[in-house]
Every structure is written in C-alpha cells, then in structure tokens.
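Q: Given only this backbone (173 positions), what sequence would you predict?
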C-alpha cells in the first residue's frame, strides 16, 4: 500500500512544481482548466509507474510492500486524486480569498492602515463582482449577451448542487 502512496505523492509533487512554473510563466484565463489539463497525464503515468516498479520500490521493507496489486493501485490512485484536489483547493483559497486580499492591501498601504473609503476603493464590490464574473465566464458557468449575464447549463447545475449542499448543511443562502 505504501508503494502507491509514495508514487502518487511523488507525482503530485512534480505536478505542483510544474504548476507553479506554469502559473509564473503565464496568466491563464482559467487556472482550473490549466490545472486539470496539466494533471491529466498524471493518472496514466501513475498506473504505468505502479506496474513497472517493484513492490518494494527498492526501499520498502517486505512488510510494507506486500499489498495485493489491485488494492495497491487503487489506494495510490485515491491518494493521487485527493492530493490533487487538496492542491486545487489550496490554490483556490488563496486566489479567491477576500480576506487575504484585504490583508495584502493593508500591507501595501502607507503605515499599513486605510480608512473605510480607501478599503472600498481598493477592494470595492464592483471590482470583486467583475473579477468573479470573469472567472465564471472563463469556466463557462455564465455567458454575457448584450450587457446581461446568463447561467449556462453547467452553471445551473452547479447552482442547484450549491443550493442542495447549503440546504443540507444549513448554511445561509
């Protein structure tokens, strides 16, 4: 079982480094699409690596390398997907966090302080909504037509799923 964990963790580490380099090199319209596209080769690469490497990987003791092949490959695949999802959520939190954006604005401000009008100018609702609409269009959840925004079929599906989760978890609308 440990073989799958080591292989999947290694692949996610390589992917994360490549992802950081890609994000530094260019500003993609949709970071999520780029993340998915750059991660998609990791799944077949994991399967190939699992099949061609010895059970011990040359480093594991016999007790930690005695896993049935199907269980080992599925376990590692699960770890691979969970680590990828964690990385995407980590990126999303830092990219979309209003709180972190405000804290960064304080850091850039003279004497690290701002008045309420300055805070509104730096991170006003209009700026936040415009940026969010750009993201929604980039992920094809909404589209614009003659100054109006409309949800796509995927957007309506995501909204329904969001309402369901909010309802089940008793979250505010």
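A: Predicted residues:
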């Amino acid at each position: 079982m440990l073989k799958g964990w080591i292989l999947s963790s290694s692949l996610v580490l390589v992917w994360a480094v490549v992802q950081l380099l890609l994000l530094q090199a260019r500003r993609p319209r949709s970071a999520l699409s780029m993340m998915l596209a750059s991660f998609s080769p990791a799944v077949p690469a994991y399967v190939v690596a699992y099949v061609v490497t010895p059970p011990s990987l040359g480093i594991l003791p016999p007790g930690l390398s005695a896993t049935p092949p199907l269980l080992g490959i599925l376990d590692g695949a699960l770890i691979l997907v969970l680590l990828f999802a964690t990385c995407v959520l980590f990126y999303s939190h830092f990219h979309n966090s209003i709180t972190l954006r405000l804290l960064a604005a304080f850091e850039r401000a003279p004497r690290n302080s701002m008045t309420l009008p300055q805070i509104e100018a730096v991170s006003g609702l209009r700026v936040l909504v415009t940026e969010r609409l750009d993201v929604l269009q980039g992920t094809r959840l909404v589209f614009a037509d003659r100054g109006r925004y409309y949800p796509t079929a995927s957007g309506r599906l995501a909204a329904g799923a969001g309402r369901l989760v909010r309802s089940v978890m008793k979250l505010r609308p």
